[in-house]
Amino acid sequence: MNSHDLFHSIHQLTRQLTKKLNEALEPYGLYSAQWSVLYTLKTKGTLTQRQLCDYLAVEAPPMTRTIQRLIKQDYVTQVQGDDRRTKYIKLTKKALQVYPEWENAVIKMNEQVINHFPLSSQEQYCKLTLDWLHSLEKI
């Protein structure tokens, strides 16, 4: 296998997983990009927009659009920091109330997608992926 085949297969897998996630979130009016922000805020707490961009490896313009959509849906709010240029993003009470429904839909989809994949392979893939992500951070 050459590196082109490897990266192509990773890209194809990512596209398919994103498609499945979007299908699972559709009844809630959410997309995968929005879920990424909501999940990150739920697990990490209030963050600046820059911190979200850095953590999710997303450029500022698409992150701004995603956050604006989430504000319109009343799922996040922006709080001005001490520095006028800093905006903190946090989940609203509405988002915290509905979050378990979103999470259940995502978990159900995850289980459907991975149920045929042996647990030992899942663990190995997770370790390889995390190792690769950590090595990329050093480059």
From TrEMBL:
The answer on whether this UniProt entry bears the keyword Transcription regulation reads yes
Q: Please list the residue ranges annotated as the HTH marR-type domain.
A: 3-134
Does the keyword Heme belong to this entry?
A: no
A Pfam family of this chain: HTH_27
InterPro entries attached here?
HTH_MarR-typ, WH-like_DNA-bd_sf, WH_DNA-bd_sf
The alphabetized UniProt keywords are: DNA-binding, Transcription, Transcription regulation
What SMART domains does the record point to?
Answer: HTH_MARR
Going by the entry's taxonomy, the superkingdom of the source organism is recorded as Bacteria
Q: What is this protein called?
A: MarR family transcriptional regulator
